[in-house]
C-alpha cells in the first residue's frame, strides 16, 4: 500500500509563494498517477492539479499559470510550486495517489494527511 507524507504548508501574504512536498513510499510493483487536492473551510474537496505516468499535467482553471505540479521519481517525491498566491487559495492541501489502471481514475486511492496553506491579504 502506497503511503504519502505531505508537507510545506504555511502562512504567506498575497502574491507570495510556497512549495508543497509529498514523500511517496510503498508503491513497489505498481504505477501511480499523482495529484494535489485542497479543501477550504465549508467547501468540498477539489482537485488542484494532477500528473500522469507520462508526466502529462492538468490544472484547475483557478490555478493555471500560477501552480506547477512535478514529480521526482528518483526521490520518490511529488511537488506543488505555488506562486502568486491569493486569499482564495487558503485551504488544507492533500497529496493523493491514483493507481494507474490503463488510465488515471478520477478518485484517489490514497491520501496524505494534509498541510495547511493560509494566504492573507
Kindly list the characteristics that best describe this protein.
mainly beta, four-stranded antiparallel sheet, single chain
Describe the structure.
The protein has strands spanning 3-7, 10-13, 18-25, 32-39, 46-51, 57-59, 67-72, 77-82, 91-99, 110-111, 115-120. The mean pLDDT is 93. Strands 2, 4, 5, 6, 9, 10 and 11 form a 7-stranded mixed sheet that branches. Strands 1-3-8-7 form a 4-stranded antiparallel sheet, with no helix packed on it. It has no helices and 11 strands. Helix content is 0%, strand content 52%.
- Uncertain stretches of 5 or more adjacent residues: none
Count of DSSP E strands?
Answer: 11
The percentage of residues in β strands lies in over 45%
Computed over alpha carbons, the radius of gyration is 14 Å
Amino acid at each position: 500500500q502506497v503511503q504519502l507524507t505531505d508537507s510545506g504548508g504555511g502562512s504567506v501574504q498575497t502574491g507570495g509563494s510556497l512549495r508543497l512536498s509529498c514523500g511517496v513510499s510503498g508503491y513497489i510493483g505498481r504505477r501511480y498517477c499523482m495529484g494535489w487536492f485542497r479543501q477550504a473551510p465549508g467547501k468540498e474537496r477539489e482537485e488542484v492539479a494532477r500528473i500522469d505516468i507520462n508526466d502529462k499535467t492538468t490544472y484547475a482553471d483557478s490555478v493555471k499559470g500560477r501552480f506547477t505540479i512535478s514529480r521526482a521519481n528518483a526521490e520518490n517525491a511529488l511537488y506543488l510550486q505555488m506562486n502568486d498566491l491569493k486569499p482564495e487559495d487558503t485551504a488544507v492541501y492533500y497529496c493523493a495517489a491514483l493507481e494507474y489502471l490503463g488510465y488515471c481514475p478520477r478518485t484517489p486511492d490514497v491520501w496524505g494527511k494534509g498541510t495547511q496553506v493560509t494566504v492573507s491579504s
